[in-house]
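Record format v2
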Amino acid sequence: MQLLWLSLFGYVLLALESPLFEQMGIPLYTPDLAIPLLLIAARKLEDFSFLFYAAILGLFIDGMTPLQPLGLNMERVIIVAYAVRPLLTALPVRGFLGYVGVGIILSIFSDLVLLVLLKLLVAGPVQYGLIFERMIPYAILTGATVPLVEALANWIWARGRPTKDTMFHQ
Amino acid sequence: MRRRYSGRPSTIIHALLILVPLTLLHYHGAHVNRESTLSRAAVYLTLPGQKTMGALARSGGELANDYLVILGVDFDLRRRYSKLNKEHEKLQLLMNDVKRRLEVQQRRATMCGFTFADGSRKLVPARVISRSTGPVNQGLRIQIEAPSGITIPKDTSVIAYPAGLVGIVIRSTGNTADVQLINDKGSTIPAQISGTNIPGTTYGTGTRAKNSLKFIVTADHDPIKKGSTLVTSGHGNRYSKGIIIGEVTSERGRQAAAGVKVEYTVSPYIRFWQLEEVFLVLETLVEED
C-alpha cells in the first residue's frame, strides 16, 4: 500500500516539476526529485520494495523526458538507491540542514553515475561539460527540495491515514 | 515449515534490478531514434500525468500573474501605465519590423520556388507536452489533438508558424512524437543562405550556447553578411525545403577545418522554451488503421 501511495506521489510530483520550472523560467535547474523521493521511501519501505520503487521512479523519469533512452534514469536511480541507506546509516542526519546536505551529496553522486552511464552506453554527442558546470548549483537546488518534499509527503500522509475515530465508525 | 519472507531481496533480484535497466539502456542508447514496445509503454504511462500537470501548471502560472497584476494596481498605477505604454510602442515597432522582414522572406521563398512557400504541404497543429533541457538532449514531446487518428511519421519537419524551423521528429508513438530541436548537439541540417546559392550545414550547439547554431560553409564563397537569413536547402530529403532557420549574427566567419571551411553563428527566430503550439509539415496525411 505504501509502495502504491509513494509511486502515485512520485508520479504526480515528477509530472508537475518540469512544467512548473518552465513557468518560472529556469528549466535547466529543475531539481532531481528522485533524490528526495528516495530519501522518503528509504524510511518507509523495506529493502525489496525500496529498490523496486527506485526502478519505478526511474521508469517514470525515462518516460517523461523526451528523447531520453529508456533505462538511463532507471539505472541511475537504482544505483543511487543502493547508496541511500548506507549513507543514512553512516551520516548523523538531523534537522533541515542535515537533509539538505544528504540531498546535495546524493545529487552529486547521481550526476557522476549519469556521466559514467552516458559515456559507456549512450551514443551521440552529449554535453559532458554541462553536467560538470551545473553539478553544484543543481545539487544545492536538489538538496533544498528534500525538506520541502518531505514536509509535503508528511502532510499528505497525515491526512490520508485513517485515524482511530474514523476506524471506529467504519 | 514455511519460511516467512523477511523483505530482504535475494542476490538474483539484486542482479536483475541492476542488469535489466542496463540491458534496456544498452539497446536504447545505441541510437537516438531507437525505440521499443517498452519505451512506447513508458510514454503512454506517463503522458496523461504530464498533460494534466502541464495544464495545471500553466493555468496556475496565469492565475498567479493575474493576481500579481491586481495587487500592483493599488501601489503605482500611473508609473506602471506609462511604462507599459512605452513597452507597447516598442513592441509595436518591433512587430512591424518582423512582419516586414517575414514578408520579404516569404516573397524570396516564393520566387525561389520553395515548396514550403507555395503552401503545397499540409500543416498539422500539435501541442507541446513536455521539454527536455538536460545535457543529454534538447527535445520536445508534442501531441496532435485534431484530427484524431493521424500517426506522425519519423523525419517530419516541425515548425512554429511563421517564425521557422523547430526541429525534426525522431520518435513517434501514435499521435505523440519526440522532436529533436535544431539546437540539439546532434542536430545537422543542410541549409543555404536565402536569396543566394551558398549551401552549407547547420549544427546545433546545445543548451550551453543558449539560442545559437553554427553554420559551416566552404571557404570559396563570398563572405556572408550579418543579418542574412538561413533556410533549409532540402538536401538529403530529411528536412522540408525552404523553411526559415534563423539569422546570421556573426560579423564575419571564423576559420574552421584548417581554413577550408568558414563558421558563422546563427540565431534562430524561435525561443524554444516558450513554444506551446507547433506545426508538423506533412507531405501526406497518414491515417491510422
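Helices of chain B lie at 11-28, 37-73, 77-112.
The CA atoms of residues 9 and 263 of chain B lie 56 Å apart.
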